[in-house]
Amino acid sequence: MAFESADAGDLGGWAVDEPGPIATGPLRRTRRKAPRPGPGEVLVRVEACGVCRTDLHLAEGDLRPHRPMTVPGHEIVGRVLGSGPGTGRFARGDRVGGAWLRGTCGVCRYCRSGRENLCPSSVYTGWDADGGFAEVTVLPEEFAYPLPGGADPAELAPLLCAGIIGYRALRRSALPPGGRLGLYGFGGSAHLAAQVALAEGATVHVLTRSAAARRLALDLGASSARGGYDAPPEPLDSAILFAPVGDLVPVALAALDRGGTLAVAGIHLSDIPVLDYQRHLFQERELRSVTSNTRADGRDFLETARRVGIRPTITRYPLDRADRALADLAADRVNGAAVLVPPTAPSPTAG
Q1: Dihedral sign of CA atoms 243, 341, 320, 293 in order
Q2: What is the pTM of this model?
Q3: What are phi and psi of 233, to 5 degrees?
């Protein structure tokens, strides 16, 4: 299925212009020609793109941009329009998903040992290459996921990063069977990880500042939902910190039982206060970070989501309100996950 043409007039989207506080308008509207897929790439008409806190970090400058005027977005659901040379996994019209991890070297010791998330040459969608805050984008075929064609694309979108990273964080938290899990912060990623943990028989306690998020947690089956700095009602076997707030690290460590593990899920975290060894780490408590994901994580999570029937709670925004979606995310006005939905537009011609 060779790519033939991508000339369908200018297509709308957004790019990070000057990173800064969201109130300064770091996102700029763009009109661009459709991209042309290169070797190993597929051209995709975006049906939905989730809005991740990583997009906010990029827009506000917490993450240094890797290139000028990059289109954010790495929770991409769309239909294949065409492909470049050397492709063959997907046919035109197939629904695919694009996630954060976009490429690795494949030959370093991390890639060879199944830890491609640690590859020093790894690249990322919406950071090293344009992402899904657009009507059309390009994805590397080998890092795209096949998705069910009959599902709501807006409900699939958060699974592609929030879900995958939450799943990896859950595994990194070393939650024992039937264990007690604490979730600090309860946004797009945490509310999906909670559903996996509950389906696997865990007791889940949610600690978050948002009253709406606490109500959602209880609706999903959490045993308790309290403020972010409150103590859970019982000691925790495991905890995951989703909120990018370093002050919560000692709070979560202090809530762990002996031998418990805290996994920090975010790509960015504010400074961590000085820890007290006896109170926070002694008795074999562990503090772990979470870095990106492997494609195996993605496949495992998407199969788990299908099997246990995970349903994201979403707020839809039209693509032309991407700036509002990021502002709402920054202000904790999004309950669950925000998802951008592009307008129906003529597709670039591809064969």
Answers
A1: positive
A2: 0.91
A3: -70, -10
- SS3 per-residue string spanning 212-256: HHHHHHHHHCCCEEECCCCCCCCCEEEEEECCCCCCHHHHHHHHE
Q: How far apart are CA 210 and CA 222, in angstroms?
A: 15
Residues 6 or more apart whose Cβ sits within 8 Å of residue 268: 54, 57, 62, 63, 244
Same domain, 322 and 241: no
- 151 and 27 together in one domain: yes
DSSP state of 129: B
Angstrom distance (rounded) from CA 88 to CA 107: 22
Rounded to an integer, the average pLDDT of 175-204 is 97
How many structural domains comprise the chain? 2
Count of CB atoms situated within 10 Å of the CB of 129: 22
Half-sphere exposure of 330 (CA within 13 A, CB side): 20
What whole-number distance in Å separates Cα of residue 183 and Cα of residue 88? Answer: 41
Show the domain range for 329.
11-158+313-341
Are 303 and 279 in contact by the 8 Å Cβ rule? The answer is no
Confidence of residue 10 (pLDDT cuts 50, 70, 90): confident
Phi and psi (nearest 5°) for 101? -70, 120
* Each residue's pLDDT tens digit, 117-171: 999 999 999 999 999 999 999 999 999 999 999 999 999 999 999 999 999 999 9
pLDDT number for residue 2: 44
Mean pLDDT of all residues in 209-236: 97
